[in-house]
Amino acid sequence: MSKIEEIASAVERGKAKLVPGLVEEALDEGADPVEILNKGMIDAMSVVGEKFKNNEIFVPEMLVAARAMKKGVEVLKPNLGGSSDVSIGKAVIGTVQGDLHDIGKNLVCLMIESAGFEVQDLGVDVPAEKFVEAAADPAVKIVGVSALLTTTMPAMKATVEALNAAPNRADFKVMVGGAPITQAFADEIGADAYTPDAATAASVAKAFVVG
Amino acid sequence: MKYTRPAFGDPNIKTFYKSSPFRAGGNYVPIVNDHPISIKENFKRAAECRTPCWVPNSATDFNFAMLFQISGMPDADWTAKERYYYTDWFGAEWMFVPEAGGPMLKPNTQFLDDITEWESKVKFPDLDAYDFEGRAKKWLESCDPEKVMHINIGQGCTERLVALRGGYTDAMCDMALEPEAVRDFLDAFADFEIRVIDKICEYIPVDYMTYHDDWGTERDTFFSEAMMESMVFEPTKRIFDHMHKKGITVQLHSCGKIERFLPYMVDMGVNTLQIQARANDFKACKEKYGNKLALEVMTMADPSWDKEQVIRNIRETVDTYGKGGGLLSSFMHGDPEILWDGTMELYYYSREKYEEEGGNQC
Q1: Looking at the predicted complex, does its ipTM rise above 0.90?
Q2: Residues in chain A, pLDDT under 50
Q3: How close B111 gets to chain A, by Cα (Å)?
Q4: Which of A143, B82, B269, B318 is 20 to 30 A from A12, comparing alpha carbons?
């Protein structure tokens, strides 16, 4: 097994304590940092996402894998020559105003970051104006809007409407998700995509940006 | 139709005011007065998936209290109109969110930042510091002793872990990375829950207890079977076993799509399930586990429905889930006339159905 394959295996198994050391060893052996990131981590997280979608693993296993990758990226980052060189774009993600649920939003943040995005987590209970303000950054390619309550679906509608009215709307895609959200609701409020889970959100976001 | 439904306002039928600990206000519920067997015996039959005489209706057949009502532990004011913060009896911080209709963990707070340190940092509440006796006495004064004594003891194992770890994200990582520490904590929590049950039973003749532990997302369980087997199911079973020892019927409330865990629920001794109709296939649950697990199916009427739609919904619920027992239900409505008619229909229609089935000695 090559060092990069070892990293991929450790990421998939959520071995956060092992991954930084393996990344250092790979760098010491002269491995290309971009290859470590793409093959050792992002590809590994794609495997994790697929396993999650297929019910082979569950939320905790996906969470620890994403956290393991994060630890590896911390070691890798100084060797990548600036995150903008490797990031495929910026994503801003938050839970709408009136809704304090964060697990879905956190998972999406981790999976989208693991797919190669720079992520700005806006947190929970986020007013529409804050989404619009964050989306004004020209680097933003994805705006993720989460809601877990039927009672906060109107806040999601208001948020998406505010984003759709932004002057730079053509520069980013709006993705929505959360327990009560459906494709029909996403279509009705003018979102670009609805995804049922974090792994699918990451692959759809990536497809929007890199095709 | 064998039984004539008493008309709205029939002077021979008394009503009582039913309030809810979760909402301001309540409504006047009619008191059915021709039960062929005791309410408690009927409940027992239904909960044990034996044929009852009617479908138990929690609005008419139960005395209900939340743990905070009978302990005085800090909890949310469910009727609040504004957000506010409070600290629970373990020290976790909460925010009541009126838009959500309930409390949520206060964002960016974490009582316990490392699960492996739970033994030194978590202080289990001193139950003697709470006035269970006085509160139970006061609550019992409002109870009808003929009705089922139902107590909701609230947060279960994983919910308590989540509350102390500041949310699901860290709690789930703990379950994946620190299973021994999690298991040790949950074993200690089960011991605490058993003390709570004993304390309640000192003062209240409890028939029925609801235990809350949310195990699922909209699409599946949060956790794998293996993870639950190694950490959660055993301490949970110990709590349920203790309830059974006290003669208490056990209800498990669990949000999300949790069908994957149904066989384990049977093994743990769950009697009745309060799960989400939106996320789970109730018909399949009834078909597969109908003789082992009773289902609570709410006949919550859409506010826009007219009386005929309400009646139709109640009948469909009884027809679909009532066969052979194993159905518990509830009916509340803001319109006093619809509430009356729905209450009568649930009682008399289910009596007619069970008499048709036969063998229930009513």
Answers
A1: no
A2: 83-84
A3: 17
A4: A143
